């Protein structure tokens, strides 16, 4: 079963069950699973909302704008994040938490919007976010969206505290967990957060960010190799065309698309 060919049973069992059902007011014209399938199609293929082939998903007359309104409504109330958190909680025993990996990801931005700035390396306006994954590359936490002109350690303490708080919401314990990170994270703030949450940092030495010399540095090179599962994570995310270039102007909707991706990756790999 491919992500663009999901059955009614699969969507209702794994996704709709975690979405809020309207208790009053006008009821949706169609079943909720149809809206979710249309949203996933847009997300997977990258088609514009206005070009969404709604007749493929509904037996009645539904406009593409009605599908967007459902996505946007769920996004505004944080339903997509709650869905992902619920799935993480349900499947936490299946996660490979011998170590976690952290990395940042810059995305080109087409239409401008919130948390956007020019980044020299990509020669374009970008947005950035940090991700935690398990040792198989399954995403388990995401930071706030940041402007692309900032490096990964920008506001690292604030971002990581929020990410660890999200892990706690999913009842994922982090004490004595190894956290692999590249040299860009080798700074005082990163190490302090790891200490506060009883996480063991396994980070590449950065002579500009650390007071220790390379000879004084303690690092497990074999364990660090697990960090490269993030390349697999990036490949999974690139499979969702909507995430390749950011067109969404609001941070809220941009993060919601990531939560949908994380949920589908988790379901597919467990």
How would you characterize this protein structure?
The chain is α/β, with parallel strands linked by helices and 270 residues long. It folds into 2 domains: 8-77, no CATH class; 96-249, Nucleotidyltransferase, domain 5. It contains 9 helices and 8 strands. It has helices at residues 8-14, 32-45, 64-76, 79-91, 156-169, 188-196, 221-224, 229-238, 251-268; strands at residues 99-109, 117-119, 124-133, 139-142, 146-147, 178-181, 200-203, 245-246. Strands 1, 2, 3, 4, 5, 6, 7 and 8 form an 8-stranded mixed beta sheet that branches. A hairpin with a 5-residue loop joins strand 3 and strand 4. Helix 4 packs parallel to helix 9.
Topology summary:
Blueprint: H1 8-14, H2 32-45, H3 64-76, H4 79-91, E1 99-109, E2 117-119, E3 124-133, E4 139-142, E5 146-147, H5 156-169, E6 178-181, H6 188-196, E7 200-203, H7 221-224, H8 229-238, E8 245-246, H9 251-268
Parallel strand pairs: 1-6, 1-8, 6-7
Antiparallel strand pairs: 1-3, 2-3, 3-4, 3-5
Helix pairs in contact: 2-3, 4-9, 5-6
Concise overview:
With 270 residues, the protein is α/β, with parallel strands linked by helices. Helices cover 38% and strands 15% of the residues.
Structural class: alpha/beta
- CATH class category name of the largest domain: Alpha Beta
How many β-strand runs?
A: 8
Order of helices and strands: HHHHEEEEEHEHEHHEH
Overall pLDDT: 91
- Helix coverage percent: 25-40%
Task: Determine the oligomeric state from the structure.
Answer: single chain
Q: Radius of gyration over alpha carbons?
A: 20 Å
Shape: globular
Percent strand equals 5-15%
Question: If you consult CATH, what is the topology of the largest domain?
Answer: Nucleotidyltransferase, domain 5
Number of domains: 2
Tally of contiguous helical segments: 9
Major sheet details: 8 strands, mixed
Residue stretches low in confidence (pLDDT < 50, at least 5 long) are none
What is the CATH architecture descriptor of the largest domain?
2-Layer Sandwich
Distance between the terminal alpha carbons, to the nearest Å?
14 Å
